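Quick log. Single chain, no ligands specified.
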Amino acid sequence: MIDRTALVSIVIPAYNHAGYLAQAIDSVIAQTHKNMELIVLDDGSTDSTRDVLAKYKDRFFWESQSNMGQAATLNKGWAMAKGKMLGYLSADDYLAPDAVSAAVSALDMNSQAVVAYCDFNLVDPGSRIIRRVRAAKFDLASMLTEFECPPGPGAIFRRTAYEQTGGWNPALKRMPDFEFWLKMARTGTFVRIPSPLAAWRVHEGSQSFAAISAERAAEPIIIIKEFFAGAQ
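-> predicted structure:
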């Protein structure tokens, strides 16, 4: 069981998404779960990201740093965070107001669960809904054989489980999130919230839709091999 009033820390790694960043930040500030910590790390952006952050002054912690990549930035943010529960939000995505409270409640009601994740909407650059994505039910076998990754934007996880994983692997450039969720699956189960409580934005600058190199294309195989090697 967890305290439903416990501190939840959200990290936003920001890199050249100044046009969307304010919406992401505002969606965290507007959460109905009131005990929130927001950490925004500008990872060496070359656009107006710093100007966007400066407008918030000291409403939350933020800083700019030399570019170190998404994985290292998230690990840094979570190391700074104080919450019993952790999460992250891409700078071009956003949350519904009840996203965090729903995740906290789901974890509270499922003592064996270490991750709570929700359905989400795909949205266009103007935040218009393209379609609802019904996240898959957590199934480790499907993750390993079909590379199915149930958690999307809005996932919240227990710090105690996170600390067993070692965080995101900075050596991975294409699927560090998938590898992270596999490591989390070793620590407990995941619980799905069947409501669209987050938005995943599709646009030309989305990393998920960028062209990939042969090296990045090989990452899934490397991840699976390392997962089974760790089970020995």
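The first strand starts at residue 8 and ends at 14.
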